[in-house]
Give the backbone structure.
Amino acid sequence: MSHFELGTLQLELVRYPLQEESTTLQAWEAADEYLLQTLTTDTLNGRPVLIFNDSFGTLACALHEFSPVSVGDSFMSELSTRYNLRLNGMDDSLVTTQSSLAPLPQAPGLVVIKVPKTLALLEQQLRALREVVTPDTQIIAGAKARDIHTSTLQLFEKILGPTRTSLAWKKARLIHCQPESDMQPAEPVTTEWALDDSEMRITNHANVFSRTGLDIGARFFMQHLPEGIEGRIADLGCGNGVIGITALALNPEAEMLFVDESYMAVESSRANVANNLPQDLDRCEFEVNNMLSGVERETLHAVLCNPPFHQGTVISDDTAWRMFCDAKRCLLPGGELRIVGNRHLDYYQKLRRLFGNCTTIATNQKFVILRAVKTNAGY
């Protein structure tokens, strides 16, 4: 079989699978169609099929009969994949989902890659593939034509072997790669840097935001974190955990929950606490999750958050708003949500509408730090 028809599938772009709400936007793009029209499965002979960075389960649904392993760094993508498999009446147990940090199956017959936005994540995934592919493994990648650069092709060539690109189709382009058996051994793609004005060193896995240094929003936020809290604090969207680590030091009687939808972010946070504050490791929890899903109502004394203001390439405060709503649900009465955000996003009015109050803690030319307190029980 060499052609798969996406039009026969019912797929939803699910942004919050644990609620009944979902959008009706198309959950695939031309690159998905191009990949499925081009790849072949006739020579698999039972060998594993690997799919990388399948944001909403499009490729997993199309290839589910081959029991693929879907690999990525997004818990939300896993939830979306499961949702869309069930939506189409497919047995979701046929598809295995796993983190990019987990070992890959040996000798795959087919590898299908949606090229990720982060080049470092692609490098990490290609290096992991280097350890398991064979010269006859079919490797095919796809993305919008504008997102495939010379550096992208050079990365495939450097790590795996000879690489060529296709003609553009519907503004999408494919990458074909022939793995060689004598390429350089794989190396982990991590970075490490010194945290300003401290003896700490921060480790970052490949797909973590601001992986090469402290971002300016976090630097400003770290100067205005709450102190003296005796209870449970959540670092929501923790990234490498630098906010939570700072709050741990400022609140020696508190417990810290590091939570993110990125496996690499949570593992970076775990490593950074273990390496820099090992004596405080027993005060910490690390959780890959969809916001604060499953966290009991009214169990947190504070939530700290540096929310993203984009989803993929689209600027949006949708994710931030859902973070704020989850924070309010999980906060105890009298508990606070403290955030840092770009000034132009007007989070002040949103928090005031949600919580009934909002205080500006600090501002500079680019960022604002806001505090909202939960005043009523039962939400």
